[in-house]
């Protein structure tokens, strides 16, 4: 009966080999090392994703603040050349520069109902009795990052102002 049992084991494992019942220490260590590397790479990607999400949220907040500043200009008081600065409740600092754009020169060609102003290669029409202003806002957010937005706003010229 011993011969039959020995024959069965040799047939399964092959002649002259020992029956193995697990992994060697080297195989286990290699598997642990591979898992550690994969875990480190995954953690790095997760950290970068969290950083990008925080940066995106801060940028969105800065855009909302800048748009709010620009939208409020000229509503409570007429626009005038000035530079304003302040800090929002969340600590972001802002600077707003308002400057009047030059009026068209009297020698410019006449445009229906107004005057023309040459800015670079572009001919800009400006109606009589309208003042144009350039509004530039800068919002500092994050570590040394600055968002800059610009727009132009028209406003009725003050009553009694000289027309060029």
Structure description:
A hairpin with a 5-residue loop joins strand 1 and strand 2. 37% of the residues lie in helices and 32% in strands. With 164 residues, it is an alpha+beta fold. The chain has two helices and seven strands. It has helices at 2-13, 25-72, and strands at 82-87, 93-100, 110-111, 114-119, 122-127, 130-141, 145-156. The strands form two sheets. The chain has a four-stranded antiparallel sheet with strand order 1-2-6-7. The model has no long low-confidence stretch (mean pLDDT 82). The chain is rod-shaped, with a radius of gyration of 37 Å. It has one domain (18-156).
Question: Brief description of this entry?
Answer:
By secondary structure, the chain is of the alpha+beta class.
* Residue share in β-strands: 25-35%
Radius of gyration: 37 Å
Low-confidence region ranges: none
**Shape, per Cα inertia axes:** rod-shaped
Tally of contiguous helical segments: 2
Number of domains: 1
**Percent of residues in helical segments?**
25-40%
